[in-house]
From TrEMBL:
<dbReference type="Pfam" id="PF18759">
    <property type="entry name" value="Plavaka"/>
</dbReference>
<feature type="domain" description="C2H2-type">
    <location>
        <begin position="5"/>
        <end position="26"/>
    </location>
</feature>
<dbReference type="InterPro" id="IPR013087">
    <property type="entry name" value="Znf_C2H2_type"/>
</dbReference>
<protein>
    <recommendedName>
        <fullName>C2H2-type domain-containing protein</fullName>
    </recommendedName>
</protein>
<dbReference type="InterPro" id="IPR041078">
    <property type="entry name" value="Plavaka"/>
</dbReference>
């Protein structure tokens, strides 16, 4: 027996009169996204080649088949590998804890009758760490070099001139090869620059490779015919100093991270190995006498750029001559490297671009006129200024430090002023919102309140309004309002959702409208993809914000105007989005999150005696474990859970046929692809814990819904049989699933509804 579904326009087998589909009750799948037009770069088309760089005769040929064999490297078997990964990476257990757990397992094995001389997994923590060190894949070891002041040294020269500054670095070429070869990025790696257009013909900007910079970079590279058919591989960098000893603040590190621009923004934000620490820069310090002198500030900048130039030197040959690399899909391709977007907060941007503090690194707007954009800065223009004007004119008129040559000048096609990416975290969320608007509102209340005590009462009432926000999915509650000292980016983003209504009645309407215009701009900027209408809306929202913020001048909160570098950066956002795609893929929040696993946790696990060396060793081991897991996943030996795997190895469970698995997955994909319809897929997620447990009869009295039991039964009938011909209220109650009124059910006070919105 079969029935015809009017939505799918297909006939399905039925059971007991109701449509069934593959033994599961029939559901309409998520519709396909609206059709888009994608144009790929014609010259740098990432044609596959062999390991010697010779292009394949058939560009559509399949990559070499994966080798399916069980080799866990230095580990005896899969349980040993998974134990090492669990203890070292996921739990970050100390050596004492690892040894104690190994003894517990050893004691259990002895009680089970095993030979006491047979140790489980590893003999000791030292044995475990040695096994991790022996992993061959993902190996990109650390080396070091030193830099020192090369000027004249007087007998009484300060200590910072005599000191050698050690920089620890990895081979950046080796790191790029490991990243490109990782099958973890198989479905998240763009091999070609592309332009995407929606159904209305509007350009869509999302990942780095979808934006204008990648296309123009490919055009420059393609001027050399020898590069045709190569794969553009932009390498993004993030430099961000971090402090690990919160109490004293004396222990700080300056890591440098590298990311492949081919990786999608979503994967880059997923905290996988799409972002890899490649260096720890030296931090120069001096006595108070020298700390604020121009000579020491200049030395710090020169030290910074010299180190960066040396770190990236292994990549230079591959920026003009193709370098053969294996890609995540298994093919070899001829890669051309480029220095891509550089992620940094404003103080770091000042160091990177060689400008004077207070100036904009993207344009020539002077510090007192940052309320509007100036003429753009670019490499050739800066060089011409160096040759034309003296040091004082460059410093005072153009905001350029003459004695600092940016590291990008030593690499092909790299312009530091162009490559600086937008920073949602420090420019938008922490900068304009928290440090500016929220602080200005507080200043206004203190200025206009009749007394200091009255101002505190108003601020307390605003806190109470914020704390009164109801529990709702996606909204964070602030039980004490926003009166806390240590703000994070997530705190600021959560406050953005509830602050505006809490201010109504205490500040002028124009101030409310100003903050509202900024929030419009902020939420548009945080989208994962933006089309031209969205960018136009951002420009309109920013224009409203700039017009309405005059209220802070009129009320005396900002008598000096708005020459603020972080707020000025918003004027460049729509242009930078067109250049580099969505800002959430090139944001300092990525490097801030990476600090936790690359710096802070390894530091806490160290003995504080020369901790940097221990941090480097930990990062190497983490990279090796991740690379081995990816490699084992590629071989297909990690598909089932560890218990099922063990049962199959000893014959207690039937072996799994890899070909059958692939065929089932392909069949399932075909079933989904064949069904087309206008329905939307929705999903409801409940909190991890229910509010309380109640019987249906008791809950009916509490909710004053006597027919609750009947409604639940009809609801289940509707869910089980969605294509039943008669309306649910006409179905006899006896035909509905039986639920006893004494049945206990879990009650949730909230839920999250997720749905696909065309």
């Amino acid at each position: 027996m079969a029935r015809f579904c009017t939505l799918c326009e297909r006939t399905y087998p039925t059971q007991h009169g109701y449509i069934k589909h593959n033994t599961l009750y029939h559901r309409h799948p998520k519709p396909r996204p609206p059709p888009t037009v994608i144009q790929y770069h014609p010259a740098l088309n990432a044609s596959p080649c062999d390991a010697n760089g010779t292009f394949l005769a058939n560009p559509n040929a399949k990559p070499p088949a994966d080798d399916i064999f069980e080799d866990f490297g230095p580990f005896e078997d899969r349980p040993s590998f998974e134990y090492a990964e669990l203890a070292f990476e996921k739990m970050a257990a100390s050596k004492g804890d690892i040894e104690h757990y190994l003894r517990v397992l050893h004691g259990k094995a002895i009680l089970a009758g095993q030979d006491p001389n047979e140790k489980p997994f590893f003999e000791s923590p030292k044995h475990l760490l040695a096994a991790i060190d022996d992993i061959q894949c993902g190996d990109a070891g650390w080396s070091s070099f030193s830099i020192r002041y090369d000027g004249p040294l007087a007998p009484d020269a300060p200590a910072w001139k005599r000191q050698r500054y050690v920089v620890h670095t990895r081979n950046t070429l080796r790191v790029a090869e490991n990243m490109c070869a990782s099958t973890d990025f198989k479905h998240a790696w763009h091999t070609r620059p592309y332009e995407q257009y929606d159904v209305n013909g509007s350009r869509v900007f999302s990942d780095v490779m979808s934006a204008s910079w990648a296309w123009k970079e490919a055009d420059k590279i393609a001027e050399d015919p020898a590069t045709h058919g190569a794969m553009l591989t932009p390498l993004c960098f993030a430099a961000d100093k971090t402090t690990v000893s919160v109490a004293t603040g004396h222990q700080e590190f300056h890591p440098l991270y590298m990311m492949a621009g081919n990786v999608t923004n979503e994967m880059r934000r997923a905290h996988r190995d799409a972002s890899v620490p490649i260096a720890f820069l030296a931090i120069a310090k001096a006595e108070r006498e020298w700390d604020d002198t121009a000579e020491f500030r200049l030395f710090k900048k020169q030290l910074y750029h010299t180190a960066l130039r040396h770190i990236l030197e292994p990549l230079r040959p591959g920026m003009t001559t193709p370098h053969i690399m294996r890609c995540p899909d298994g093919h070899y391709r001829r890669a051309i490297f480029s220095i891509g977007p550089i992620i940094a907060d404003y103080p770091e941007q000042v160091f990177l671009s060689g400008i004077v503090q207070g100036w904009c690194p993207k344009c020539q707007a002077p510090p007192e006129e940052l309320d509007k954009a100036g003429a753009p800065r670019f490499r050739e223009h800066t060089h011409q200024l160096w040759e034309t004007f003296n040091r004082k004119t460059l410093y005072d008129v153009f905001g350029i430090v003459n004695d600092v040559r940016p590291f990008t000048d030593y690499f092909p096609r790299a312009d530091i002023h162009e490559l600086l990416a937008p920073d949602l975290l420090h420019q938008l969320i922490k900068g304009t919102f928290k440090d500016h608007l929220v602080s200005w509102v507080e200043d206004y209340i203190r200025l206009t309140a009749p007394s200091a005590r009255a101002a505190k009462r108003i601020l307390d009432d605003i806190d109470r309004r914020i704390a009164a926000a109801p529990a709702f999915p996606g909204l964070r509650r602030f039980p004490q309002g926003r009166n806390f000292k240590q703000w994070t980016g997530n705190d600021s983003k959560a406050l953005m959702k509830v602050l505006l209504p809490a201010l109504v009645g205490y500040v002028p309407d124009q101030m409310i409208e100003c903050i509202g215009a900024f929030l419009d701009f902020a939420y548009l900027a945080r989208r994962s993809s933006l089309d031209i209408p969205a960018l136009d809306a951002m420009d309109a929202a920013l224009a409203r914000f700039c017009e309405l913020r005059e209220v802070f001048i009129e009320t005396g909160v900002r008598p000096d105007g708005f020459s603020l570098p972080r707020q000025h950066a918003l004027l460049h956002y729509t242009y930078m989005i067109k250049q580099f795609g969505s800002p959430n893929g090139v944001c300092t929040s990525i490097s801030e999150s990476k600090h936790i696993t690359a710096v802070k946790r390894p530091w806490r696990a160290s003995n504080r005696n020369n901790p940097l060396i221990q941090i480097l060793r930990t990062n190497t081991r983490l990279s090796k474990l991740t690379a081995l897991r990816v490699e084992l996943g590629r071989r297909g030996v990690l598909r089932s859970n560890i218990v099922t795997y063990a049962m199959r190895k000893v014959g207690l469970a039937p072996p799994e046929d890899r070909q059958d698995v692939l065929e089932r997955r392909h069949s399932a994909a075909q079933d989904v692809a064949d069904i087309d319809g206008p329905e939307v897929e929705s999903q409801v997620r409940l909190p991890a814990r229910h509010a309380y447990l109640s019987r249906i009869s008791v809950l009916a009295r509490r909710l004053r819904v006597p027919s609750l039991n009947e409604l639940l039964r009809r609801f289940l009938h509707e869910q089980l049989y969605p294509d039943f011909d008669e309306p649910d209220d006409h179905v006899p109650l006896a035909a509905c699933p039986w639920i006893s009124p004494s049945t206990s059910i879990k009650v949730y006070n909230s839920a999250t509804a997720i749905f696909f919105a065309p």
